[in-house]
Amino acid sequence: RAKLDGRRCVRIFEPEMDVEMRSRVLLERDLRQAVAQDVVVPHYQPLVDLRTGALVGFEMLARWPHPTRGMVPPDVFIPLAEDLGLIGALTEGLMRQACREATSWPHALTLACNLSPVQLCDPGLPGAIRAVLNETGLLPSRLELEVTESALVGDLALARASLGQLKVLGVRLAIDDFGTGYSSLRHLQSLPFDKIKIDRGFVAGMADNIDSGKIVSAVVGLGRSLGLVTVAEGIETETIAGLLRDLGCDIGQGWLFGRPVSADQIVTILSEEPVEHRAVPAAA
Ligand code: C2E
Ligand code: MG
Ligand code: MG
Ligand code: MG
């Protein structure tokens, strides 16, 4: 019986899988071309000092404008680029463009870029980033590399070696989506991070979930006692910004302060709003 059902299943789903497969093959072809032609572009989201409200930098978030599918989100094409072995080339192209653009921002502003977990296993990574810094002239201390915790579950020794080499370049390192991975505390202790980015899930939960608030409070305390800068992502309301400020969280990011925007729009933000005069969001 099960066998029969199984066979029927296969027959029923075969055409659909075919469509799915074909769609994926097309997307793969398009992504190869997009990477080769630098079609994937950096967008930027503001990072704000929670105490003063001043702009302190931007996180680069990749966007793929696709001719027929519209804006393809990174959650779709980054994993695909990893599978296709394109992530190194994609990151390098994006970082070169973002670092070049960042050299025209006020010097106090930092640029944060995300690295894929698989890139920590690439022995060519530190050299590629050094080359981008040399080429663009961006001061290494203005570049911050964000690594998600899931990057650290694989070969920890390899990740440590890779992060150590990046640190030698003079860039800063942040652990991203903190709280969603494994053995976080060991990573904080044994790896050269400068920053903790608290995952959006905990931050969003602070408004109505006491436990989320307690977790964020504990992470901010942990970060401070380890001498790390704490960043909260996904801040959508002034209430949450106020709660985070009261906890002593250093930096905020989220729709309250600004959505990711294109390089053109950044120029407008910077010309209209002097960095040091940005409005402080009212505490709740
Ligand atoms: P992430 O590094 O944790 O980036 C934060 C994500 O939260 C971004 O999603 C951002 O748009 C979103 N976000 C920021 N503030 C808010 C808010 O207030 N509310 C809500 N609902 N969302 C907010 P995005 O741009 O879709 O990127 C998703 C993930 O894709 C990133 O998460 C990062 O892991 C990855 N990613 C993006 N660009 C790159 C890249 O160039 N290279 C690599 N390897 N990964 C990237
Ligand atoms: Mg990030
Ligand atoms: Mg994050
Ligand atoms: Mg996140």
From TrEMBL:
Q: Does the keyword Membrane apply?
A: yes
Keyword annotations of the record:
Membrane, Transmembrane, Transmembrane helix
Q: EAL domain location, by residue?
A: 24-274
This chain belongs to which protein, by name? EAL domain-containing protein
* Parent-protein residues present: 380 to 663 of 663
